[in-house]
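Title: Prediction job returns without error message
Component: structure pipeline
Severity: low
Priority: P3
Assignee: unassigned

Description:
Job completed but the reporter wants confirmation the result is attached to the right record. Sequence as submitted:
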Amino acid sequence: MYQPRFPTFSVSPRTFSNAATRGEALQSLAETDSLRSRFFSWRGASGRRYVCSVFQSGEEPFIADVTNGAVIGVAREGATNRPVCVFLAQERVPGDRYALRRIARELGVAEWHVHFCADAATLRDLSASLLN
């Protein structure tokens, strides 16, 4: 089985409902068709809101070039977003789009949510909220 070169953390089914309630579409973009699907927010364990840019599965070449940000792999179950992994972009091999594609296949990632300019504290906050 493939072992990624950067940390990924899967969400157990038990935490799914808890994590799902922590994310939401941006209400300010509700009436803009072109932008509504490109942004999403997640709440950290601290209650802080993290606005993320949304990239579809297949856009891994762009995600692979991100050098500073928290990346959340998101599976879709109907209209519900379910986080399946979260990692710092700077902790993986830059430009390794093949690793991202393998992770997407293995974990069922439909979208990549990226909170740009994130640090280890952001990752801990998001991980504590989404993966526990």
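Comment from assignee: result matches the submitted record. The helical segments are 16-20, 33-36, 60-65, 97-107, 120-130.
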